């Protein structure tokens, strides 16, 4: 077998038959050459793809990125990297594996095709390639990805929601009582909001504003927001012209601009969710899940993959976790690998870090906030230090895990409140981190009348034995 490696966006030709092969495999549209090219234009990391042939016929396709930050960042020529890195086999801007095989290819053939691609990557990149990581592998791939001196590691599982309901009423009835009241109220409130237009499975979104929302969302989830490069408007423009891609979105009625969106892609097993964007309204982010589930039920789509990360939150919507694996290929190195393989936190696959590894501050903060959104007491307490202190909006103080647990058990059992938190500042210094949020809190009083208040929320975390834990929570009413 022979592999043809090319650089999308680098000016070289696309191998004959590339798009025909990926379409025949019913792969998501992100595999198509035009979208790989648009992804490469806005990528800080060189993108490569390869078509493997046997007797002149395509039998496998691969794509991925060299996981380094070039010195000149995005302005370096496509396909060039200044320093060595790990090549990650993965579809850019998705949670999808970067491997496709012809249906008639048996295990031995898949193994041979994979090795042919790996050899061509090593030949092209030379010493710049430290090794190859096959990301998002499931159990069906173990036979052809594994081998001598090839280790595997469990990674954050993918959340999959299987369609098992006849209507949204049946879906809500299947949820626990507290979660049912909360989500059904949210679904109704957002749908009736006169200032919003709710869109489900629309084929087009404003490319410029989608790019901005994507950037805002990713900036909120990193301690280096200035380094976040948005997906280019050209990327969304090409998606708008691609069958198999659609959006769930909320638009501001007066301006027509999107204020939140989720990109959904057709796939053989149903849908894949990938890029998401929001201007800060956490309720809208949750409502997007409900709109997708509503459409899923109405159209009979069998399942939707929600991706890794925020596992507890996604499980609270009815999703289940599907284990995934990362396969390093140390036999591709110029020297034997003895130490555990790193996954660089700066790469776009940071969500695939082995779950047993200590998480970084940003991930710990996401887990903390997601546990509050999901009203998951055990997940919340896992992010809190035993001797933490919480200053409540009214001035009361909670000290220690017992008091904090008792308060949050009662608070999480209340289905009526909603809270929208927008991060305004993050400071990270050695083993201490501070995150500041503007919060809008809404609830019902004792007589059932709605009320709201604004406050500033300050969270202080400390890294203790490698784990980031909340040590102080300060609430100040404005």
Helix-strand blueprint:
Elements: E1 2-6, H1 18-24, H2 33-41, E2 47-54, E3 57-66, E4 85-89, E5 99-101, H3 107-125, E6 129-137, H4 142-145, E7 153-162, H5 168-173, H6 177-192, E8 196-202, H7 207-219, H8 233-240, E9 245-252, E10 258-267, E11 270-278, H9 282-299, E12 303-307, H10 311-316, E13 320-329, H11 361-374, H12 377-381, E14 384-391, E15 397-399, H13 401-413, E16 418-429, E17 432-444, E18 450-464, E19 467-477
Parallel strand pairs: 4-6, 11-12, 14-19
Antiparallel strand pairs: 1-2, 2-3, 3-4, 3-5, 6-13, 7-12, 7-13, 8-9, 9-10, 10-11, 14-15, 16-17, 17-18, 18-19
Helix pairs in contact: 2-8, 6-9, 7-8
Low-confidence stretches: 69-79, 329-357
Which overall shape is indicated by the principal axes computed on the Cα atoms? globular
Average pLDDT reading: 83
Largest sheet: 13 strands, mixed
Q: Give the strand content.
A: 25-35%
The total of helices stands at: 13
Structural class: alpha+beta
Helix content: 25-40%
């Amino acid at each position: 077998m022979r592999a043809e490696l090319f650089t999308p966006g680098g000016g070289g030709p696309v191998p004959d038959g590339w798009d025909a092969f990926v379409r025949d495999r019913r792969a998501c549209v992100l595999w198509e050459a035009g979208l790989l090219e648009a992804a490469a234009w806005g990528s800080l990391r060189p993108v490569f793809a390869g078509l493997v042939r046997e007797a002149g016929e395509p039998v496998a396709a691969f794509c991925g990125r060299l996981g380094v930050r070039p010195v000149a960042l995005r302005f370096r020529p496509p396909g060039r990297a200044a320093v060595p890195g790990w090549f990650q086999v993965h579809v850019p801007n998705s949670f999808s594996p970067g491997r496709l095989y012809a249906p008639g290819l048996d295990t031995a053939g898949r193994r041979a095709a994979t090795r042919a691609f790996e050899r061509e990557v090593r030949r092209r990149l030379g010493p710049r390639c430290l090794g190859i990581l096959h990301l998002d592998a499931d159990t069906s791939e173990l036979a052809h990805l594994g081998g001598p001196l090839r280790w595997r590691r469990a990674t954050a599982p993918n959340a999959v929601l299987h369609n098992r309901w006849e209507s949204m009423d049946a879906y809500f009835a299947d949820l626990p009582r507290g979660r049912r009241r909360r989500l059904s109220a949210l679904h109704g409130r957002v749908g009736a909001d006169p200032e919003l237009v709710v869109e489900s499975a629309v084929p087009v979104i404003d490319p410029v504003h989608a790019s901005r929302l994507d950037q805002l969302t990713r900036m909120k989830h990193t301690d280096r927001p200035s380094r976040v490069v948005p997906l280019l408007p050209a990327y969304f423009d090409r998606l708008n012209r691609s069958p198999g891609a659609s959006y769930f979105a909320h638009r501001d009625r007066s301006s027509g601009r999107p204020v939140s969106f989720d990109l959904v892609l057709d796939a053989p097993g149903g849908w894949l969710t990938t890029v998401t964007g929001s201007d800060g309204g956490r309720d809208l982010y949750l409502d997007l899940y409900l709109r997708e589930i509503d459409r899923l039920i109405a159209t009979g789509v069998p399942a939707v993959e929600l991706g890794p990360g925020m596992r507890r939150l996604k499980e609270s919507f009815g999703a289940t976790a599907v284990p995934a694996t990362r396969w390093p290929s140390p036999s591709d190195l110029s020297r034997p690998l003895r130490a555990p393989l790193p996954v660089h936190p700066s790469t776009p696959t940071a969500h695939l870090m082995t779950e047993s590894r200590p998480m970084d501050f940003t991930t710990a903060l996401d887990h903390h906030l997601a546990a509050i959104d999901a009203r998951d007491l055990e997940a919340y307490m896992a992010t809190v230090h035993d001797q933490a202190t919480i200053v409540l909006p009214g001035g009361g103080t909670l000290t220690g895990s017992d008091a904090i647990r008792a308060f949050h058990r009662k608070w999480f059992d209340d289905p009526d409140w909603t809270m929208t938190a927008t991060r305004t500042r993050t400071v990270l210094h050695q083993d201490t981190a501070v995150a500041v949020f503007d919060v809008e809190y809404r609830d019902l009083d004792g007589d059932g009348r709605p009320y709201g208040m604004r406050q500033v929320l300050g969270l202080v975390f400390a890294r203790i034995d490698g784990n980031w834990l909340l040590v102080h929570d300060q609430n100040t009413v404005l």
